[in-house]
Amino acid sequence: MQGLMMDYQLTLDRILEHAYRMFPHKQISTKLPDGSMHRYTYAQFYGRVKRLANVLRSLDVQTGDRVGTFAWNNYQHLELYYAAPGCSAVCHTLNIRLSPDQLAWIINHAEDKVVFVDGTLLPLFERIAPHLRTVQHYVLFNAERGLETKLPNVLFYEELMAEAGEAFDWTVTDERTAMGLCYTSGTTGDPKGVLYSHRSMFLHTYGENQASALGLIEEDVVMPVVPMFHAMAWGLPYSCTMAGADIVFPGSHMNAAALADLIAEEKVSVAAGVPTIWNALYHELKSNPRDVSHVRSLVVGGAAMPRALIEGYEKELGVNVVHAWGMTEMSPLGTVSKLQRHHRDLPDHEKWDIKARQGYPIAGVEMRIVNLEGEELPWDGATMGELQVRGPWIAKGYYKVESNRDAITADGWFRTGDVVTISPDGYMYITDRTKDLVKSGGEWISSVALENTLMAHPRVMEAAVIAIPDENWGERPLAVVVPTKDAGELSEDELRAHLAQHFARFQIPDRFLIIAEIPKTSVGKFDKKVLRHRHAKGELV
């Protein structure tokens, strides 16, 4: 027997219509390239999205066509997030920090028809354009006519918008229509595309706005520091709009001082970014204090937030840290680490231990851990296994890939590649990526645990641990450390003694290298593949 319910399609235009009806006065602010602020209301945003949908139609963008975006976090990028899906096209966010070769491969693989380019990034994109096979038009914003460029078929965003009308009937009618495309960073082989549907992103937005998840509300002022090319800014452009929150975009101003100023001046209540961003911000706020009292949630994801940094924010700055975890393949939110009622009376140090975990699955995400034979393992907080997930906003395969057997189990679970433990009350803790575990003498050593403990040292800014070959043990850990600016002389013996308080002797790295900077991936994580490559070439000595 079927239920007698309306056939209400979960398409993203409904989020925009709701925001326009309920929150027309709410504000979207962007720090422009020249440092000034652009501000407009949701009502004005709504009208411009409809204009942009007409622009896309005038460029012959049809159902299913891919529309590329090559831009910072700004209001024009947000307009594309809604206009492309609203006219049944696919918003394909391009990672501005990938190499030209990778970007050319991705654009050609996706067969982008039109690419919108932020004028501040034009020199970078001009290196890619000669290698592109399918792009018919390049549209520039934050750029004026008369700008010299090597790009062919160039159009200007604001000129097109001025000519377009605001009357547009949304053409997407099926919630299973594709709306977004993101590629993984290709750390192992070619990048892989993840194609999101209207239904998956709509349900992800519901999931993200659960009170036990990020719980955005109309009173919030949200600053997405996570790039809009990174898993669609963790879905925040949709969850903010659904909730009616004010939005603050930093644009290209991503240094710690600029972010600290924005948080203080705009009275930001929720900010989201990767640990390297918040690490730099913490040291900036310690050196040059700002008013951050409005921040109710500093959301961190993309990599593990060191426990010491969580403690520093909460104990010294009074800022609540919300650890989250997800993947491009998960749209991306999967877990959050918030304290629950039964944690209320714990001492602070135990609360920070819990907050350092990646957290419990939000409703809509199922998790399990398995061993190498695929057998399910217990949630006891100690047993390690590979994390597998499933749910309505989790990918069932990759875009234009013939076989997904390596990614999806026979019974329909997605293999994350993370090695984790899960506590009896459902809090997941990532001990490592399968490829980053140090396998020494038949024992596993967690690089993540070593890194977090090293970064708890008061004179350590950043730390990364990689496995290096060893004749006797197979592999041994090598620690690479960046000291704080005022660290003075930081010795190996001091670091070894610091780790000895927390680890068995065999787990402690044999060597510690002090360097000026740890290489980062395109989304701000420590790039261990570069460190491993440098070590293999004899450059890390």
Number of helical regions: 16
Q: What gross morphology would you assign? A: globular
Look at the helices and sheets and give the structural class.
alpha/beta
What would the CATH topology of the domain at 13-28 and 38-212 be? Rossmann fold
Give the strand content: 15-25%
The H-level CATH homologous superfamily of the domain at 13-28 and 38-212, spelled out, is ANL, N-terminal domain
Strand order of the largest sheet: 2-1-11-10-12-13-14-15-16
Helix amount: 25-40%
Mean pLDDT reading: 94
Number of strands: 25
Structural account:
It is a single chain. This protein is α/β, with parallel strands linked by helices and 541 residues long. Among the domains are: 13-28 and 38-212, 3-Layer(aba) Sandwich (Rossmann fold); 364-433, Luciferase, Domain 3 (Luciferase, domain 3); 438-536, GMP Synthetase, Chain A, domain 3 (2-Layer Sandwich). The protein has 16 helices and 25 strands. A nine-stranded mixed sheet has the order 2-1-11-10-12-13-14-15-16, with helices on both faces. Helix 1 runs parallel beside helix 9. The longest helix is centred in the N-terminal third of the chain and has 17 residues, at 42-58. The termini are far apart. The model has no long low-confidence stretch (mean pLDDT 94).
What's the structural blueprint in terms of helices and strands?
Elements: H1 13-22, E1 27-31, E2 37-41, H2 42-58, E3 66-70, H3 75-86, E4 90-93, H4 100-110, E5 112-118, H5 122-126, E6 137-141, E7 154-156, H6 157-163, E8 178-183, E9 193-197, H7 198-208, E10 221-224, H8 231-234, H9 236-243, E11 246-249, H10 256-266, E12 270-273, H11 275-287, E13 297-300, H12 307-316, E14 321-326, E15 333-337, H13 348-355, E16 360-361, E17 366-370, E18 385-390, E19 414-422, E20 428-433, E21 438-440, E22 443-445, H14 447-454, E23 460-470, E24 474-483, H15 492-500, E25 511-514, H16 528-536
Parallel strand pairs: 1-11, 3-4, 3-5, 4-8, 5-6, 6-7, 10-11, 10-12, 12-13, 13-14, 24-25
Antiparallel strand pairs: 1-2, 8-9, 14-15, 15-16, 17-18, 18-19, 19-20, 21-22, 23-24
Helix pairs in contact: 1-9, 2-3, 2-6, 7-9, 10-11
